[in-house]
Amino acid sequence: xxxxxxxxxxxxxxxxxxxxxxxxxxxxxxxxxxxxxxxxxxxxxxxxxxxxxxxxxxxxxxxxxxxxxxxxxxxxxxxxxxxxxxxxxxxxxxxxxxxxxxxxxxxxxxxxxxxxxxxxxxxxxxxxxxxxxxxxxxxxxxxxxxxxxxxxxxxxxxxxxxxxxxxxxxxxxxxxxxxxxxxxxxxxxxxxxxxxxxxxxxxxxxxxxxxxxxxxxxxx
Length: 220
Hints:
Layout: H1 12-24, H2 29-40, H3 46-61, E1 68-69, E2 77-83, E3 91-98, E4 107-113, H4 118-139, E5 150-153, E6 156-161, H5 170-192, H6 198-214
Antiparallel strand pairs: 1-2, 2-3, 3-4, 4-6, 5-6
Helix pairs in contact: 1-2, 3-5, 4-5, 5-6
């Protein structure tokens, strides 16, 4: 959705009230006025759709002990934490970012762990590489050149999300994002349970990944 500059004549008292509310909502005056006007004319802005999707992701994750959904740093980003059973109990951090103009990718997932442990970073990288191999083998044909849109760097993983078909509703998209994070987190922990046996780790992760794909779901 394009943006342009318009000149409006507003009461000073109204602007003060808007500014107070914008401050409370951690947004800008222009963004808040845009939202208010959109709601008044029943128009769904990208920001409103992102908030709706994230709200549904939070609802789907509500009650799951493995996840803690944090306060959103912005309308476009949702932050999620998950504990990892590894020596000093580090925390995995999942950041979901939705793009305001979703073409062709609709957003991305970033995974990281705040740690200085070289052993943990190497184990995380080992799982990320295995995950990429599995996605390339099983769903790579859905992407240009058969390559999964992802990157691995210094114990961090980043993966873009693409819709498998045309437009889908916010609820289906929220469920697809939730399913992806849940499966990624679950299989990462399965992998860590078999760190002493690489072949067993790969076999266990691949078996559950295939089971994940076999269920009726939207795969991003």
